[in-house]
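Input:
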Amino acid sequence: MRTMFVWMAGCLIGLASLPAAIASGWNMPVGVTEISREIYSLHMIIFWICVAIGVVVFGVMFYSLFKFRHSRGAKSANFHENTTVEVIWTAVPLLILVGMAVPATATLKKMYDTSDAELDVMIVGQQFRWRYEYLGEDVAFTSSMSTPMAQVRGEEEKGEHYLLEVDNPLVLPINRKVRFLMTSDDVIHSWWVPDFAVKQDTIPGFINENWTRIDEPGIYRGQCAELCGMNHGFMPIVVHAMEEDDFDAWLVERREEAEQEAMGVDRDWEMDELMERGEGVYASVCASCHQDVGQGSPPVFPALAGNQQLLDDPAWHLDVIINGVSGAAMPAFRSTLNPVEIAAVTTWTRNAWGNDTGDVVQPAEVAEELAQ
Amino acid sequence: MAPKLPPHHPVEQSTSAVAGGNAAAHPEPPRGILRWLLTTNHKEIGSLYLIFSLIMFFIGGIFALVVRAELFQPGMSLIRPEFFNQMTTMHGLIMVFAAVMPAFTGLANWMIPLQIGAPDMALPRLNNFSFWLLPVAFILLLSTLLMPGGGPNFGWTFYAPLSTTYAPPSTTFFILSLHIAGISSILGAINIVATILNMRAPGMRMMDMPLFVWTWLITAFLLIAVMPVLAGVITMMLMDINFGTHFFNAAGGGDPVLFQHLFWFFGHPEVYIMILPAFGIVSAIIPTFARKPLFGYASMVYATASIAILSFLVWAHHMFVVGLPLAAELFFMYTTMLIAVPTGVKVFNWITTLFRGSISFEPPMLFALAFVVLFTIGGLSGVMLAIAPADFQYHDTYFVVAHFHYVLVPGAVFAIMAGVYYWLPKWTGHYPNVKLAQWHFWLSVVGVNLTFFPMHFSGLAGMPRRIPDYALQFADFNLVSSLGSFLFGASQLVFVAVVILCVRGGEKAPAKAWEGAVDLEWSVPSPAPLHTFETPPTFQRQQH
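Output:
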């Protein structure tokens, strides 16, 4: 028996030193919110309980395998069925489970308390980007992966935040309770930032709620967690958490930018201006499905370069961008993009990659379409 | 590589369901391919199932290796993301529906009549039909890979609307193939229930049946209960895709979450369909090689039944982050945790059976012992996953991938291999080559752990599942996983070699091939003649 205890103690010490010996990149992050810390400690408690159970169970098992070997002349006993033992090994696990369920229930209740939020952010999943709307603040934008596809294809060296970087990060204040309202325009996605322990599916036709209160300023990264199609692996989340004053200033700045953009609707835009703007919009919004040079990924995502219907029928082209295609993967961009962006991306797709129609679509025309 | 079957000898009694029935001679079976197409013999059909599942195990394995090769290092280096999604999807579908399930059905076909002293399955023609539906179903499924737009690419869980509005055109064929496979499973299950309830040797009560028979009986009831739910949900998909309904389309007033409720109401019992017969196999092997009766036969039966009943009450633990109300989260968290109790009872029973036994380590025992250890690891990570708040971090990460591969690969698959090594002497009349089997075992154990253990870490560190490319901090874990998977894949070739060699020859096995074996199958000669128990055996009640 003594060797068995020495062996078990050795195992315990070995396992106990494991987390210390290995870098933090091997375990769940502790995170920067009260909830994430609670979940981390719950995770660790249950992990150690499981380790303890494992040590006992495997300890007895390996002891038996060494001690009662046929080759060592072990004679088998013939005992079986013992009500006392069976009651004990049913009751003890039950008690351990109750012990686990109590703190888990408490944490879960806190996670579900979305009341008294100071800021509401709508998160909309789209193939294959996120749209963020600060409700009541007139600020909204989309956030797409900014890692160049050349890095993915191995033509360029991969950067430090390979696949975990975006063009427009979600900006949030620290120390304020932020409520997330989550939905989707197309398929189910799942918005996950490990440092906040927030993971919630975004489901078309549903609005899910979750919340966070961040303790420390910083940049936090996450990814879409629910398979959402071809580029599921390429829709990261970046959250820039700021001091409260900085956040308020940022919000004002974004609101002014949006107002200026709105004024640009009435003026006549040059083709070059529209093309430059359109290229950016295309890369951020369209390229994930229709690919970087408009070659598409048929049959679900048709090619745009050399697309005969697109070349022949400008009105249809604009209508598809504004209203989407019902029953197909193409979403409506009516409320996602502003008139300038729609005009620019329409102009770009009508003139890029050999689609040399020379057509220019003005923001004012788009605004008129949208008004109908 | 069909196993060499014993020559057909006409005998006096018929294989009719009534044991000891009228005395008509067996007609001579057709030769060549027709023999296999038309066979109604449970042993031949069992072999067909097993060979089919082995082939599918390799096809599904190749898909997994394509996935692991792409994930070997960061960057898209071999395949495109849309093909990656088809590979993960097909790997899951093939392994679940075409490898693991038919392998257990094959073992059931071979062994249940032998273990209960029945001459054949209760419904032999239905048995033939159940099997031959499978190649049809899976050739159809595999052919979708060649269709425009590719095969299913929405994960083996095929969540709507990704699998409906946004799915490739081949999805209708995918639905048809699952329907066919589902019919096969239901018919197979009905046959097993009918056989077990009606055809036991005189004197064998329910509580005298070997545990493999018990676990299969319960599994068959699970199949009959949930396969129609799967059929319903895929029919709703079919309607949404082709007939303009909106069951799962939010834009038409439908409900994408309904899909998940229906799918997992099927899917969770399905998980136990893949593990309960494994419990039965391990419960036969451990007492045999510990030369000591199973510690708690009755409690094993009750534990199996409890797990089966609970399996209908836990489905939404797959959906902890879809936005269920708090009350539902709590309910499903508690019921899920409860499953640990009967599962624990099983593990404790196996270990108590080992305690003070007289243990030897023949190949079936090696796999059964690895099953106990590695399945328990999968069970413990299952307890972690049951904790709903923590699941907000674990959900849809590689931690989940690690968990279910631990219960399915060194769990279900190792149990199947243990069963094959255990019963090969009965099937072929020869012992499998011990040296090769040991090589197979150790390479598999090392490979499986190298593949799946690092996935716990990459998942906890934040790697979502089903992504074709990953951030740089996950590179080391993925490298190890990929190397492990190649080792595991290659070591299964050793398994094939062992099986082929064993069919062809080897050390002759007596009727009772293992010293500690007790069940009825060991009373017929090895190899088992084509027709056995044509007069029902006298069942000697032994201590369980």
